[in-house]
């Protein structure tokens, strides 16, 4: 019975013109956030992040209390809340995101071994079925050699044996970086995947030598990454546009003591060099948009140069998706969005994608 209703949900989701997806990290419950606070009128997929993967290929929820224990929206656990919301909104898919930064070392081990890959597929399916989820999202940050690229494909192929495509969603997050993308046969990867979540942000940050726009749609030089070049790389490699989701950050990256891109990095303000989008622009600063790069910024105050997206840049990015035949947008991460619907990036993206 579960599978037929899930099948109907996948079919109804594929008839939606564009996907507008969000990531919801489980640790946000400790900041008082809940999935019930979001506006599901403009969200059709939630990636619940993250489940962990062990070196033997086992997949398990990373925080039992946050996922299934804490009182949340009148039920138990943030995942419990999403399962409840799924009953309420027939268009909503809830997908379990597996991996993230914590599993960078584990994925290469699991993916390189047929027995461990099978354990992963079996374990993921068990968790998906037990929780009533719609599928999984693989966040291996990131296959960084051609061998790992081959192993990544083998992992996707194995997952599909356990989570067949007529019943389950399978997606993967990949960066808009040639250095990573060139390791993967993307055309073949796209045959297994419902979507590639293109991480079109974090181009610049505390780790980079210079300041720069962290999520620019267009770059001023060939060397710099951008959202548009990432989309182009995927499509040129044979990924259908409708299987690409362009990533939007709901946070800004801060560079202190500089006034814009291209300066020596002297450290960042905020928490780990970033501010949540709902705390931007910083007090006493004026928000500006670099129309060539398609990037918002504010300069001054406690953030120095802060680079982020705002409603103006998201409108341009959503329009770009429509023009290029890209499948839609995703946002990291939902609780950081503005509560004001005019300022909300999730709502702006949705409205622009679905306006004529």
From TrEMBL:
GH18 domain sequence ranges: 18-356
Gene Ontology CC annotations of this record: extracellular region
GO molecular function: chitin binding; endochitinase activity
EC primary class: hydrolase
Gene Ontology biological-process annotations: carbohydrate metabolic process; chitin catabolic process
Gene3D superfamilies in alphabetical order: 3.10.50.10, Glycosidases (3.20.20.80)
InterPro entries xref list: Chitinase_II/V-like_cat, Chitinase_insertion_sf, GH, Glyco_hydro18_cat, Glycosyl_Hydrlase_18
EC number: 3.2.1.14
Family indicated by similarity: Belongs to the glycosyl hydrolase 18 family. Chitinase class V subfamily.
PANTHER family for the chain: CHITINASE
Name the UniProt record assigns to this protein: chitinase
Organism of derivation: Podospora australis
